[in-house]
């Protein structure tokens, strides 16, 4: 277990796809899989097949140490239908995606 401080994009980038434990300032605890951080928001449990980083379109990128080929969706309507199906079935982690404001986070631990 590794504490990440300060919680920012540079510190978290190497940990994309890893399980995390987040302690909130109000005393709550959240467990999830770190997907990305954008504009001061921590995003957990997002399906990586639905998110293609802008800088890595049509290239390989790593998730939890595994190289993945980024694929862009050719048909927008098929993508919408796929998202509806994915939302109904749950995400790859079995948890709903979460977006947390950076100011809500008291402590963040990487669990790998």
Overview of this structure, please?
- The protein has two helices and eight strands; from the N terminus they run E-H-E-E-E-E-E-H-E-E.
- A six-stranded antiparallel β-sheet has the order 1-8-2-3-4-7. The protein has a two-stranded antiparallel sheet with strand order 5-6.
- With 112 residues, it is α+β, with helices and mostly antiparallel strands.
- The N and C termini lie close together (6 Å).
- The protein is globular.
- Helices cover 16% and strands 37% of the residues.
SSE blueprint:
Blueprint: E1 2-4, H1 9-12, E2 19-24, E3 29-38, E4 41-44, E5 60-63, E6 66-69, H2 76-89, E7 98-101, E8 105-110
Antiparallel strand pairs: 1-8, 2-3, 2-8, 3-4, 4-7, 5-6
Provide tags for this entry.
SH3 type barrels, 112 residues, two-stranded antiparallel sheet, 8 strands, alpha+beta, six-stranded antiparallel sheet, single chain, 37% strand
């Amino acid at each position: 277990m590794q504490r990440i401080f300060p919680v920012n994009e540079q510190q978290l980038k190497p940990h994309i796809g890893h399980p995390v434990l987040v302690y909130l300032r109000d005393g709550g605890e959240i467990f999830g899989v770190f997907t990305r951080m954008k504009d001061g928001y921590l995003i957990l449990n997002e399906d990586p097949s639905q998110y293609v980083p802008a800088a890595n379109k049509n290239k390989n990128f790593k998730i939890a140490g595994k190289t993945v080929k980024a694929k862009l969706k050719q048909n927008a309507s098929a993508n919408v239908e796929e998202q509806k199906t994915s939302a109904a079935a749950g995400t790859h982690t079995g948890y709903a995606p979460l977006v947390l404001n950076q100011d809500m986070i008291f402590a963040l631990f990487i669990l790998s």
